[in-house]
Model the fold of this input.
Amino acid sequence: MRASWATVRRFLLLTGLYFAGAVLASLYLRTPEDVTLFWPSAGIGYAVVVRYGLPWVVVIPAAMALLHAFVLPVPMEFLPYSIGSNTVATLAAGWYVQRHRRGRDLHLQTSDGLLLLRGGILLGAISSIVGTAGLIQADMIVPGDAGRALLLWLLGDLLGMTTLTPSLSLLFARDDDRVGALWKGDDATPRERIAWVIVLATCLVVIYFAGRSGNQYALGLVSLPLALLLWAAVRFSPIWTMSATVGVVVFLSLLTGLGLGGFSRPLTLLDSSVLMLLLCLVSVIPVMLSVSNYEKNTTAAALYRRATRDPLTGLLNRSTFEERARECLGKDDTELTLLYLDLDHFKLVNDSTSHVAGDDLIRSVASLVEAELGESALVARTGGDEFSALLPGSEAAAIASGRRLLSAIDALRVPWQEQTLTAAASIGLVHSSSPHEDFDVLFSHADAACFAAKELGGNRVLPASSDRDEMQLRTASMRRALQVREALDQRRFALYCQPIVDLNRPSPQQRHFEILLRWIDANGEMRPPAELIAAAERYRLGPRLDRYVIDTVLQWLEQHPEEAQAIELCSVNLGGDTLIDDEFSDYFAARLRRSSFPAERLCLEITETSVVRDRSRAQQFISRMRNRGCRFALDDFGTGFCSFSYLQHLDVDYLKIDGSFVRDLEQSPLAEAVVRSITDIAHVLDKRTIAEQAETAMQVDRLRMMGVDYAQGYVFCRPQPIDAFFAAAAAA
Done:
């Protein structure tokens, strides 16, 4: 019922508007020969049909019927032509625009303005042809005057459309917020607006009195308001320019149509045509310039927004955030806290639903971040599921804000198809007082604090100040991860070898050995890889590092067939992430197929902790590579979460006893018992044992007495570069 009443109200309002325009034209804007100088209702009806659709053309016959019934009686023969000319022409023009805009809304841009102008010309042509035919049919004009009537009718409709359709199209726009923005879409000050209005009013007064003076060139002063309209087109909003254009055209039309201010009404076809063409130019030029200027400013604003804003969330992007954060940090009179938020387990959302669902969740979280932190905070999306904010105030206040934000995120529920998406997050923050530290330093501390919060279980706020030493260690770990990436890109690694010696049947050292990795830093110095490999594992660079090692080892062996021929077993370490990486498994299988080195002579060393992490996928990898011929060793055995019970289901060939037990053999009965039990269990399961880090002859003797099969350590040989390792064998 409410919708029906709204429709009736709109119909009455639009009919009244069309009727008012027709009355104005009929009573005041006519020439002595009873020809309408311009027809504002043409622009009104056109705007109504373009905005609300073709059915709303009923406004026109309703208003025209009222006009001819109460204001402007016409012969009955002309009545259907008068109503039909306006109705049919507007319907045709509306259909033309609807067909060419292809279902989209019209916007304030030059192409849409030209589309409206083409439709307006079509409207004027049809209306003038039908109307002129009616005038002849009703004997209101003689056939010889058909050309004059046709031209004046066409120009009157065209002037009505160019004057009123643009402004009414904006006022009838769907998006009320956009209309409001158009009113405020310029940088002009109130003082400039007032000055402009005063100057325009003065110009119109000058034109009026110039006409009264009898000056035959007074109408040439129309260039003054035209110049002011061009000024408005450049400086003011489009709706301001369009409204002012309507006022100027109506004022000039009344002066000439009513013969005010000494102006004589146009008496001939030429006078009327020249006047109407002049008014058409006055109505078109400022509006087109205003639209063009608005379009240029809109495009510039869109480019600026794209350059500074994240397209998904509308928040600042990372580069803009860094730039503005540095500006804030450059002020020495404020306390600031840098906050870094990362969603916990966000990858599960993308993997279990879709990236579209993930985007919806990101947008929802972004809205919460912006709302909870307030307008005083500088907020940005700095990564896929990462947000950063710079908050004024104390660390305690920032912690409180962070906790409120985490609570809001924890309570967030985003419907997605038949599911409900939830989220949790971790926040790291770092406080800074003047003089402030560099942004990069603060950001790395906040990032490290967030990482630590995740490792503590997530869904918590962790200030970097709570354990600054720990934060520095984590920051150093991040730097080492970057060094891993750089070293891989530049291939700054070297292969070293260390023999694995058979304690019962010693053989040449080069027959069974382990490949060890050494890292060459940016200064060209050789460094042990322990910290670097740990950082690679932490930041998921392990598979890439292992792929490099495997490829480099096989390349060396393929290029040295004589040395490769003598090898009994070459051991290579694989990280925990590599073991469950399907892409690495596919790569390794393909690499083995095209290698001349037999897979049966490769032993892949894996740690028990990496197996426990995902036993199912680890076993799948082991089975696939064993089918290719590879053998496996369980590295660092005895120090992880291993249970003897699952060894019978784990298809490995060797158990490498952790070096901490081997080093303590001489003074620890417990170490001896562990080594002995591992060896006994391995033999029961038909596996062999390798003792790591054997450093003395006494340790080797005790290992041999306990039945350990192999040993590896400094007592036999320190690690050597692979070329030197095999060169020593050739020299022997």
User: Anything to note?
Assistant: The longest strand covers residues 512-520.
